Amino acid sequence: MNDIARNRQELFENGFSVINNIYSTAEVQNILAAIGNADTSKDTFRKTTDLFAIRQFLKEVPSTLDLIFNEKLKTIISEVLGNNFFVVKSIYFDKPETSNWYVSYHQDLIISVDRKMEIDNFVSWTIKQNQFAVQPPTDILENITTIRVHLDDTDEQKGALRVVPKSHVKKIYRPETINWDNETETTCCVKQGGIMLMKPLTLHSSSRTTNHKKRRVIHIELANKELPDGLKWAERIDLM
Q1: What 3-state class would DSSP assign to 90?
Q2: CATH at residue 185
Q3: How far apart are CA 86 and CA 236, in angstroms?
Q4: 27-46 in b/e burial notation, b at 16+ Cβ within 10 A?
Q5: Distance in angstroms (rounded) separating the CA atoms of residues 223 and 178
Q6: How far does CA 221 lie from the centroid of its chain?
Q7: Who has the most CB within 10 Å: 57, 100, 103, 153?
């Protein structure tokens, strides 16, 4: 079995897979330089002592699009997922050196859409910073794959994601019902320039940073299905 075939098997069986060496040091620095040149005055930019985040990242910093989707990443998307996938959400996260930010176990159940509509099984509507969000049926969530681009080495001391393998096959899995007698926990360490593939229904959490070093990650969600009844993905970007 070649490496990409193994990554595909890991993703669909366990809900996640780590792939290093997607970006060179120079490519990472080019991405960071583009982020550094962005206009941070917009509502989609959020900055606190514990977190700097850019929502709708690829739309707000479009100069990163070709830098992120280099030939290596395009090959992985094509061979692991297929050729019909497009971006449906993108967020940049920067945990500063002094961050004490902790995220408990959860699934990513919310998608970003262009409007609010009455559609069967679309629930928990919210709007934040002029962005509509909703929890869709599980078949839509199952179709999504997340790519986490790591711009720094990320290990246990830097808040690397912890995941529950195979939890994505259990549909909606409430964290308070986790039976740790039956489940295991894996920490996903990723090198700078590497990526993590993950299914949104995989239970995952993030620890506090303890070694006073940055952790910068670009979170991108891909799908290949349109939404029903004329509802549109808010951040759709075609790749191929």
Answers
A1: strand
A2: 2.60.120.620
A3: 7
A4: ebebbbebbeebeeeeebbe
A5: 28
A6: 6
A7: 57
Percent of the chain with pLDDT over 90: 76
Quote the pLDDT of residue 98: 58
* Sign of the alpha-carbon dihedral angle for 9, 10, 11, 15: positive
Q: How many domains does the chain have?
A: 1
- pLDDT, tens only, 157-216: 777 899 999 999 999 999 999 999 999 999 999 999 999 999 999 999 987 776 666 789
DSSP character at residue 200: T
Q: How far apart are CA 42 and CA 14, in angstroms?
A: 38
Token duo for residue 19: 């792939």
Distance CA 25, CA 54 (A): 22
Give mean pLDDT, residues 73-101: 87
